[in-house]
Amino acid sequence: MTDTRQVTESSEAVIEARGLHFRAGASHILRGIDLTVDRGEVVALLGANGSGKSTLVRALVGINTPSEGTVRLLGEPLGAGRRGAGVDWSRIGYVPQRAGAGGGIPSTAQEVVASGLLHGRRLRLPRGWRDQVANALEQVGLADRVRDPVHLLSGGQQQRILIARALVREPDLLVLDEPVAGVDVASQEAFAATMERLVDGGLTVLVVLHELGELEPLVSRAVVLRHGKVVHDGAPPRARDDHDRVGHRHQHPHGDDNGGRVVRDTAETRALDLEVRP
Amino acid sequence: MIMLMLTDPFMQRALIAALLVGVTAPVVGTYLVQRRLSLLGDGIGHVALTGVALGWLVGAGMGLTPNDALAIPGAVVAAVIGAVLIEVVRRRGRTSGDLALAIMFYGGIAGGVFLIGIAGGSSGNLMQYLFGSISTVTDGDLWLTVVLSLVVLAVGVGLRHALFSVSHDEEFATASGLPVWALNIVVAVVSALTVTVAMRVVGLLLVSALMIVPVAVAQQVTHAFGRTMLTACVVGVVVCVSGLSITYWYNVSPGATIVVLAIGVYAVVSLVAPFVTRRRPVHDPHPDLPDDVDLPAAATERAVAAAKECR
C-alpha cells in the first residue's frame, strides 16, 4: 500500500515559505527563511532555544504575520487579501507548544477536542462530531477521559489533548511545536507509534523538536535553525541507518541514499554542533 | 397574591424584561469570563452612560418629547462603539487593554454627567439609568428589549462552538483559519447589546454583576463550558424573576435586590458545593504508566501496593 501512495503522490509542496522575515519590535527573529515541505515528508525543525523555531511555525500557520516574505499552504497563499481565504484549513492540523492558560472556565476534553472540528468558514460542528472526537481521543489513548475537565489532567495528558484536537479533523498536514517536551519516554513511544501509523497513511509532518528522540526513525529530513536562518537542510543527524525499515520512502531529493550516514559521527552531523556562521 | 402580581400590566412588562435579561446576560458573561474579560461589561456600561446623555442632547436639540426618547438608542450606539474600541485596543497590544478599560470607565461617567448638563438636565436624570428603572418600562422599551435579546441569544447560542474556540485558544483558532477578528467583534457587539438590554432592569452600574455572578455560581458546581453556560442561565433567570417579585411587595430597588440575591446564591453555593460535588474520582488520578527509572524489587512492590490503594 505504500507503493500505491508513491505512485499517486505528486511532488506538490505542502508548505512553501520564501524569504520569510519576522521582526518583533527591534528584534529581527527570522532573517530570510526559505523552507519547502513536500507531500509525505516528515521534516524535523531543530535548533537551540531562541533560534526562531516556534516563531517560524507560528508564521507558517498564520498566527504570526511575517514582516516580509510569503507563505503558501497546500498551494494557496497565506495572508494575501482576506487572510488565507483560499487555504483549505480542513487539511491542516496545528499543535501548539503547550496548553495555554486556557480560558477562565473549565472545559472538558470533549469540548476542547471538538473545537478542532471548526476551521475556515465552518463555524458549527458537523453531524456525528461526538464520534469523531471519541475517535481522536482514542488515537492519543485518552478515550476514557472524554468528560474530564482538561485543567485537571496532567501536563503530558493535556499535550495529548492538543494533539487530538489537531487530529480530529483528519488533516493531511500536521504542524507540531515540541509535542514531546516534558513527556515521559513511555508516552513518547506511544506518540511515535501513533505518528508512524499516520505517516504511513500519507500524513505530511513538520515537527519542531529539541532532539530527534523517539521520532528519529520517522524523520525524513531535518532543517536546523540558528540565529533566525536555516543553516542546514537535509539528512537528519541520526543514530542508525533505517533504509531497510518498512515504509521508508526514497523521495527526498537530498541524495541521502548513498549510505554515507551510517555512523552518528559523520562529518555532517558533527558540523551541527559547531558554530555556523551565516 | 401571585395572580395579583401577574395581572398587573406594569409587572407583566417588568417580568418579561427580567426574564430576558436573566437568560441573555449569563450567556454573554460566560464568554467574557472565558476570555478573562469579566470587567468588560462594566467598561461598556460606563460608556453607555455617555450614550444616554448624548441621546438626551440630540433629543433636546430636535425638540423631541419625552426628552429621553433617544436615550436608549444613544446607549446602544455608544456601547457598541466602546466595545469595538476595547477589542481594537486589545488586539493591538494586550498590556494596554487594561489601561484602555480604565480610561473608558472614567471617560464614560464624566462624559455622561458633562453632556447631560449641556442638554439641560441634571445628573439626577441619569440615576434611573445608573441603577435601573424597571417599573417605567414602556411597551416600546419592551419590544426593543425582546428584539435585542433574541439577537444576543441567536448569536451567543448559535455560534457557541466557534465563540468557544476563539475564547478558549485564540491562537489555535487563528491557525484553523477561523475568522477570529470577526468573531471577537461579534462578542464585543453582543456584550454591548446585552449591557443596553440589562440597563433598564438593573442599571448600568450593576449590569456586569448580572453577566458575571451567575457564571461564578455555575463554576462552583460544574466543570464543563456548556454546562456552565446552561447553569448560569438558570441562575440568572431565577434571581432576576424572584428579585423582581420581591420588589412587588417590598419597596426596595429591583436592580439592587436582584444583584444582592445573586451574590447571596453565590455565597450559599460556594459553602455547600464542596460537600455536594465531592465524589470519589472514577479513575486513579495517577495513570498506570511505566516511568523512566529502573527500580529495585522492593520499590516495585511498593509501587504495586500504592496502585492498589488508589483503585
TrEMBL record, chain A:
Keyword vocabulary terms for this entry: ATP-binding, Nucleotide-binding, Transport
InterPro entries recorded: AAA+_ATPase, ABC_transporter-like_ATP-bd, ABC_transporter-like_CS, Metal_Ion_Import_ABC, P-loop_NTPase
Keyword Phosphoprotein among UniProt keywords: no
Basic and acidic residues bias: start-end ranges: 253-264
Residues covered by region (Disordered): 232-264
Flavoprotein is among the record's keywords: no
Residue intervals passing through the bilayer: none
Residue span, ABC transporter domain: 15-252
PROSITE patterns attached to this UniProt entry: ABC_TRANSPORTER_1, ABC_TRANSPORTER_2
GO molecular function, one term: ATP binding
Similarity remark: Belongs to the ABC transporter superfamily.
Protein name: Metal ABC transporter ATP-binding protein
UniProtKB/TrEMBL annotation, chain B:
Keywords linked to the UniProt accession: Membrane, Transmembrane, Transmembrane helix, Transport
Topology versus the membrane: Multi-pass membrane protein
Transmembrane intervals: 14-33, 45-64, 70-89, 101-122, 142-160, 172-191, 197-217, 229-250, 256-276
Pfam families, A to Z: ABC-3
InterPro entries per the UniProt record, alphabetical: ABC_BtuC-like, ABC_TroCD
Main location: membrane
Domain of life: Bacteria
Locations listed in the record: Cell membrane; Membrane
Family according to the record: Belongs to the ABC-3 integral membrane protein family.
Name used for this protein in its record: Metal ABC transporter permease
Lineage: Bacteria, Bacillati, Actinomycetota, Actinomycetes, Micrococcales
